[in-house]
Amino acid sequence: MSVCVVIPVYNSPYILEVIKDVLTHGYEVVVVDDGSTQKVDVEGLHVELITHIKNMGKGEAILSGAKKAKELGYTSFVTMDADKQHLSSEIIKLTDVYKEDNIVIGCRNFEDENVPKSSKFGRAFSNFWVNLETFKSLKDTQSGFRIYPISILELNTKNRRFDFEIEVLVLHSYAKKEIIDVEVECYYPPSEERISHFDKLKDNIRLSRIHSILFMQRFFLLRGFIWN
Q1: Potential cystine with 106: which of 20, 149, 183, 184 (Cβ 3.0-4.6 Å)?
Q2: Which fold has domain 4-220?
């Protein structure tokens, strides 16, 4: 199966390293610079670069990448973070199980000693709510290492930051489409090398809000049962 790789980036010192690693595996790369103050210079590299003038959020960056992937003739695309956590050598595990119009999630191995406790808690919390909202048993709903079908552009998503990655799973499920997860290896750097733009206050509020909305719509307005 032919896929391209979409890499949303906001001020990552590792972006060129990530791009070059993906290119060595033969994938076409779309980089979405989401308003970085540190210019993403891809001169000499065979990549498609999209630049947001200001930071619009990871969800908006993914949607920009989806539009470019569609323009390039792809029907699906892989998303990878720009922090070196996701390994391009593991993409094949996602493509091997992909079926048309499904979402595939790379379920990260959290046995590494460098995985922060907050990440383990956040994943468990997210899994509980998404599984309740979709009636699916998903193991890593916070993983950004995924295959998306281009059809996510047709979903009426409202959120554009980290909450997008939750909303798109739930709305995709409400549209009676499948979500598959597959175990993958990942790299967690020591704490002093780790970068994250997740705001523990603002983004947790956003995530709590989207879960509250989806839960209310699911069980009181019967969303996913009688309407998408």
Answers
A1: 184
A2: Spore Coat Polysaccharide Biosynthesis Protein SpsA; Chain A (3.90.550)
Instruction: Determine the Cα angle at 150 with ends 99 and 125, to 5°.
Output: 75
Structure tokens at 124: 């468990």
**Residue in this structure with the two tokens 């552009």, named with its chain if needed:** 153
Question: What value, to the nearest 5°, has the Cα angle with vertex 30 and ends 28 and 35?
Answer: 165
Q: How far apart are CA 67 and CA 58, in angstroms?
A: 14
Using CA atoms, how far apart are residues 5 and 79, in angstroms rounded to an integer?
6
Q: Please check whether residue 80 is in contact with residue 5, taking contact to mean a CB–CB distance below 8 angstroms.
A: yes
Token pair listed for 116: 């922060």
Q: Per-residue pLDDT tens for 94-147?
A: 999 999 999 999 999 888 777 878 888 889 999 999 999 999 999 999 999 999
Domain ranges of the chain: 4-220
CB proximity list for 70: less than 8 A, separation 6 or greater:
150, 153
Give the orientation angle of helix 202-220 with respect to helix 164-174, to 10 degrees.
20
Residues with Cβ within 8 Å of residue 134, at least 6 apart in sequence: 169, 170, 173, 174, 179, 224
Beta strands in 117-162 (DSSP E): 146-149
Whole-prediction pTM: 0.92
